[in-house]
Specification:
alpha/beta; 23% strand
């Protein structure tokens, strides 16, 4: 029987960074869905079950990535990884990791596994 890949939703509004993150996550052995906005991410969360959400905190000009945390966890995600070029927001909770940009693929893997 073939092993089913865990799904990760990658949310990043910068096209090049979105593609890079998708490639990084896929290289770690996950199935990847990408979204470029809060609206696309919400649609994906409503249509598909994800093991993990990887999202930039700032989508556009506001910290809308933070709005996705509860939505993803309420829909069955077991892990959320927030990324940003800005400082870590306050207490994020046990199921939420934070990575400061730039980060390595090994740091990303550790955030998924923590």
């Amino acid at each position: 029987m073939e092993k089913r890949l865990e799904r990760v939703l990658v949310v990043e509004d910068n096209l090049l960074v979105n593609q890079l993150l998708g490639d990084m996550v896929q290289s770690l052995g996950f199935a990847v869905t990408t979204a470029f906005s809060l609206e696309q991410a919400r649609r994906a969360l409503a249509e598909t079950s994800f093991h993990c959400l990887l999202t930039d905190i700032n989508l556009g000009n506001e910290p809308s990535g933070l709005r996705l945390v509860g939505e993803a966890l309420n829909r069955g995600a077991s892990r959320v990884v927030l990324i940003s070029g800005h400082p870590k927001p306050g207490d994020l909770g046990a199921d939420v990791a934070f990575l400061a940009k730039p980060f390595t693929i090994s740091q990303l893997q550790q955030a998924f596994e923590a």
